Give the backbone structure.
Amino acid sequence: MIYDTIIVGAGFAGAVLAERLASQNNQRVLIIEKRRHTGGNCYDCYDEHGVLIHRYGPHLFHTSNRDVFQYLSQFTDWHHYEHSVLAYIDGQKVPVPFNLNTLAALFPTRLVQSLEAKLIDRYGYGAKVPILTLREQDDPELKFLADFIYDKMFVNYTAKQWGCKPEEISPEVTARVPVHISRDNRYFQDSYQALPKQGYSRLFDNMLAHPNISVLLNTDYKDVLAIDVDQQTISAFGTPFKGQLIYTGLVDELFGYRFGELPYRSLQFQFEHFNEDFFQDATTVNYPNNHDFTRITEFKRASGQKVQGTTTLKEFPQNYDPRDSAKNIPYYPIFTDQNAALFQQYQELSTSFSALTLVGRLAEYRYYDMDDIVERALQVFADKFA
Ligand code: FAD
Ligand code: UDP
């Protein structure tokens, strides 16, 4: 076998590790990817109208980690873009995360003044307060506001996205979109916010261009690798493989579901094209209470692409089902205590297998954003392979 390391999956987790191992350790790396392209869920492409779209849902890059931004800047120039989102609530499109401008748009002036003063007094200007925390305090006016935000912005959106109530999933999930005691309408406050100037797929092509890296597309690892977790052996293409295996796919699949199946949420995507310059007033509009989809994203508002017509994407959440081809992409791990405990069993089993490293959203059952997974992969390289 001519490869030192085999990597399953060509998303950010796999691509960063392949790039580091090839360029820093002069290793020969094989990536096995079951899709017909690299990039994982960050993959983008031009649709038949020439609009650059994100095939697996809108991907907005944001980070406060300078090292991550500098690392990726080796492989791309950037188009500066700060994401803004509106939510359709009570017949109006108002800023999300809920902030003081949202408050002013939805309530009469006297109530706004009183609520604003109380919020600033209690939490301080600039504070970010998770909705589940805001609901816990006892001032009747603030409690009224918290219940309003919970009911109008979170409860139905979360029911669509996760199939449960906000308090039934890890509080970290809804805390991603905290109530912001400020007039800053941006979705993220990170110091670096941008999209790869020529798209994510070009960024991945550049990352994987090293001559030591080979990529085998359209290949499920199960068709070419035999991994015996109990014997701790790996065979590749019918011959024993003595190198390292970095695995970024589903952890329960790798271990033959021996402790049970980990649940995921999937999505169905509906792309639509319009012969208009623009379709909506913001890149993303959330629909917490209306329709079966959660949000509509208009790509050219984010990419800044100059192109005739515009393409939008509606996201319809659904349960993941590996046996149904319309539902068999596991986009999101579901963050409950029970699922975390199940994942823990797989993780413990993996630690005894020294040639195996689990990295990534699926392999670690974590809600990694792109910058998180780049940071994580760089850390794994530094800790284990540098
Ligand atoms: P993935 O990108 O999922 O890559 C895993 C790869 O492994 C895939 O290509 C898969 O095909 C391959 N694979 C799986 N099983 C096998 C197998 N059996 N054989 C071979 N190959 C296999 N992050 C942000 O920072 N900003 C955003 O705006 C944002 N928006 C998102 C929107 C959506 C709808 C989703 C789902 C995610 C979003 N993310 C966003 C998160 C981002 O997609 C992840 O951080 C990133 O994709 C994680 O990279 P990864 O390599 O861990 O996983
Ligand atoms: N959320 C919500 N209403 C909104 C926006 C977000 O209820 O208008 C909740 C919902 O549970 C969602 C979570 O906050 O899954 C995190 O939102 P984010 O936009 O970060 O989700 P992602 O882009 O990762 O799908």
Summary: DSSP finds 13 helices and 22 strands in the chain.
